């Protein structure tokens, strides 16, 4: 799946091209019907792109929500294990880690 930045860059490029073609159409005297048709085509294209971006946004949001839910489940499971360990072993302080030597003394 393309990244959101790639999708946005592509959409920006295409929208820029559509705007440029509209600006070029305005430089030469078009007929009124051609102007309306160009605007309608641009609106239809932009609506399609907005729909695509909205769908992509929803998919990304669902993906992130699933990741968050997974992490939350893992947190709950680990908290339960901690509580069970505390009940089983009591609230004993964590033993200090062994300190390794700082190297050989010459």
Helical content band: over 70%
Major sheet details: none
The termini sit apart by 58 Å
| Global geometry | elongated
Quick one: how many beta strands? 0
Report the mean per-residue pLDDT as an integer. 86
User: Uncertain regions: pLDDT < 50 for 5+ in a row?
Assistant: none
What share of residues are in beta strands? Answer: under 5%
N to C succession of SSEs: HH
Secondary structural class: mainly alpha
Determine Rg (CA atoms, Å).
30 Å
Describe the structure.
The mean pLDDT is 86. 77% of the residues lie in helices and 0% in strands. It has 106 residues and is mainly α.
What are the salient characteristics of this protein?
mainly alpha, 106 residues, 0% strand, single chain
Summarize the model shown.
It contains 2 helices and no strands. It is mainly α and 106 residues long.
How is the topology of this model organized?
Blueprint: H1 4-27, H2 32-89
Helix pairs in contact: 1-2
């Amino acid at each position: 799946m393309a990244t959101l930045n790639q999708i946005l860059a592509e959409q920006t490029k295409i929208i820029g091209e559509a705007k440029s073609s509209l600006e070029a159409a305005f430089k030469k005297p078009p007929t009124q019907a051609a102007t309306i048709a160009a605007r309608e085509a641009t609106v239809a294209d932009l609506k399609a792109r907005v729909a695509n971006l909205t769908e992509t946004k929803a998919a990304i949001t669902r993906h992130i929500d699933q990741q968050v839910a997974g992490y939350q489940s893992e947190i709950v499971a680990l908290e339960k294990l901690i509580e069970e360990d505390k009940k089983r072993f009591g609230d004993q302080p964590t033993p200090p880690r062994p300190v390794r030597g700082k190297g050989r003394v010459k």
